[in-house]
Amino acid sequence: MLSSDGLRQGEDYIPGRVSDLTSLPNLDEDVLLQELKARYAADRIYTYVGDILVAVNPFKDVPLYTKEISERYCGGLHSDHPPHIFATANDAYQGMLGKLSAPPQDQCIVISGESGAGKTESTKLLIRQLLQLCQGTSQLEQQILQVNPLLEAFGNAQTLMNDNSSRFGKYIQLFFQNGAVKGAKIREYLLEKSRLVQQTEGEQNFHVFYCMLNGLSPQNMERHHLGGGQNYSYLKNFQDKAQQYRTQHQQLLDAMDMVGFNEEEQEGMFSILAGVLHMGNIQICATDSGEAYVDRAAKDLNIVAEILGVDSTDLESSLTQSVVRTNKGELIQRNYTVQQALASRDAVSKALYGRLFGWLVNKINQLLAPTDTSIAELQQIGVLDIFGFEHFEYNSFEQLCINLANEQLQYFFNQHIFLLEQEEYQREGVSWSTITFTDNKPVLDLLLARPIGILALLDEESLFPQGTDLSLLQKLNQNVGSSAHFTTGKQARSPLFTITHYAGKVEYNVTGWLEKNRDTLPSNTMSLLQRSCNPLINTICNGSITRTGTLALQHKTSKGRRLSKRPAGRQVGEFGKKGGKQLTLGGQFKNSLTVLVERITAARPHFVRCIKPNGLKQPNNFQDDAVAAQLKYTGMMETIRIRREGYALRIPFQQFVQRYRSLGDIAHIPEDQHGCQRILKATGLSDWLIGKTKVLLKWWHTYELASRLQKVEQAATCIQTGVRGLLARRKVAHLRELANKQAAAAVMFLSHTEQLIEDAFQRQLHLAERDETAPPPVAGGMTAEMTPADAAAVQQVATKMADIHLQEDAHTQVEEKENLSSDEEIVEDDFTGPISSMNRWGKEGTKAASVRWFRETQQKAVMQDSGTFAPWFHGIITRRESERLLQEKPLGCFLIRVSESRFGYSLTYRISSRCKHFMIDQLPSGKYVVVGEPKVHASLSALVDYYRKNPLTGDLLTEPCGQVEGHEDYAELLIGNRYSLVRVEEEMQPYGSALHRDDSAPPPLPERNYTTLREPDNQQGINKHMHYQTLLNNQQQQLGVRAVPDTTAPPLPARTRRK
Length: 1059
Known about the structure:
The protein has 32 helices and 27 strands. By secondary structure, the protein is of the alpha+beta class. The chain has a seven-stranded mixed beta sheet, sandwiched between helices. Strand 8 and strand 9 (292-294) form a beta hairpin. The longest helix is centred in the C-terminal third of the chain and has 70 residues, at 701-770. It starts with 28 loop residues before the first helix and ends in a 20-residue tail after the last helix.
């Protein structure tokens, strides 16, 4: 049994065996380093520092993420199992549900570390485990899992430090209701667009280009005029990994299909990517006077114009000329130099790719948005995966923004772990020896302060048309040169300066900073793209750029109102508009950081510190110097001290008593410090303190209290089970007694009705014999001359039956009212999920709705070319019926049936000892997928063919089950089938329909039958008596009444009708 400090009771310290670094007996840098090294050598890559997780990148596959291991960390406590990133996900999930030390609260997981430390992989593992904790069975979980591979293709690239480096930041929000995931939202930060047009030696462009060039079919390659990767100036360091890229391309297509992108949208994305590659090949030449023009001999201009859906002459003009409007409204046209034209060409490429990436994120958010519920009503867990700290040989504006984000996260960590905690000790009157830490606030002020911070000065210089990169450096030196964290180059006109970050000194080169910060396109170029006949280009170029740099297609403000007369495709505060200056790239990034910090501050944070063991990306290589430097600048020693000596949990008195009242020794506990002391003493815990307004607890107290509370809840559940069982048995007995009374009343009613029919028939027969002019008898024996006594008797029993139906209807209406979903509400970014199928086909989970769904959307999906149903298709049959059909069939025999519980299908096939069942869903793109499997299929037939060749969980499909001729179980699904139409209408409209009786009315009388009996025998009388007996038995079965023994009446005399 592990103690709270990670050591087993009575054990001596052995390097590599301590799961929590706060329990190290001797705390110094060497001991800390050797402990991590020993654990790394044993593939124990995870270690705790209290409630903080340290993860060392193994640079290899380790057997730590199997399904069995994942299930161990579903529920339970932090200390039940060895350190793992799944435990961090479980802590966040349990904290969101309020099962730990605090009431239910939104959570966030902040992952930090250098580039190549494993943050992206950690993010994917966290999301996977959070979805595992939900235990959901819908396709939404698989869609969310496919978001990361999709974003990685468009936003990640190979760098010198990392083969899969995130060149953008993302904050993934998962929305929950009652513990089940309801949707997701992605927020992206600062895509490194400059990588698109230039990469340093040893680095590559975004992954998607290499996947496209190796994975597209020959027909698509020809359509987009594409060739080998070596043919494009935007692609450097092209590596021969054709098979790997083909596999990644297929995974990308599957991810697009899974998330919900249709064929047209996918084709549009690849056409823009092809256009960007061709754009980079446009050759710019100079005339004798130095004016730029496009070399049309290479034909790249015409190809780009064709792909982008614009006129080639207009495109050439926009690349080589600028149009300036004077104060008098006159247009002045100026020719570019070659350098300016090349910059214009690259700016168009970056704008197209940046807006495509923004549209991609926007579309994902739309497809994964929660349905039927406002986001404000949902709980959420956020996972922050942001670019790691970077220090290259050449560092530009992008590296400054990336390192600024890491400075902000380090400051947030320091605030949460050190500053705010120690300030609270002082307010609560706790005796405390202050732990010093490296405060990086001066560096943040250097970068963000106004009006003389680096970003503010950069924005100011960007406003001047004559400003240059060197004039920017001079301005920086004049205003912030006195800072201890800023130094300039030694040479007079050197474009270099150095900032001392929390992670060390980084030298930056200001070349190109002003142009990158402006991040604009000439107005004539943007207007040309907005008129494109390519639908996707037209859409993305008419979108608006928000104050945080994201693409907004609805053109709404943050308050939800329409932008008043805001032209599409313009940025907020763009030049040429009334109201302010242009919002620069640096300003957008600063705003996005502010919003991000506000969001994670509002939630309960969990920290994951990723460590890179070496700079060579090699497994089993632990470089002491590299790891020691990371431990030092992240403040790991100070973090261990404050987690060991401090009180991570600080709970107000009232909240503590309300949550842990059941652990006390008396029923009524006051909600003050005395009540808190009473509860803590009853639990037997130690090392806690009582402050002025709060209880101060160690981090491990959370799990001790949760364990005790869990035992109390289990005992309470056991007691409740017994009491509820007793109450349920009493209720069942009462209902049984009531049912018996109703059954007796029903039998009496039916017997009385049968007697009335017999008496009436005999009277009619007697009257017919006396008076041949009497009206003929009807099938039920009722005539217009029914006596008042007979009518009253029928009305009496009909009233009793109506009362029974009214009671059933009232119970049904109560259940339907409880199951009503809340109205949808338009939220912040106006993202709404797919249209609810409730209103389109009826209530999901009913047979009638499933029939309507199939008839309207699926009829052709299960048809063969011959016009008949596929042999593997079956109708709406139960799981047990499908198993019965396959019982005597060979192994691998299968069928696909329409599901009644949801709008989809179920695949059932036979194995040696039983049958396996899988759900099949139709994606928004119209394609099909087996739930839980990543492979997407264009049709159900393609799905069947695939799993006949590729095993599904280890088994191959062999032959279809087929149908028994004349007993097909899909008759009710056929459009035009009169019987099934009546049945569906009855289920859809149970009241007031002309196709059925009203359940609240008395049972209907049989239809009139005036058939003349021509032969004087008793056969027709016998038939009529059998008809009455059948009616009686049907009524008894509907009411659940035991049938009355059949006493055959004597044959009735034949009836005649007067000619």
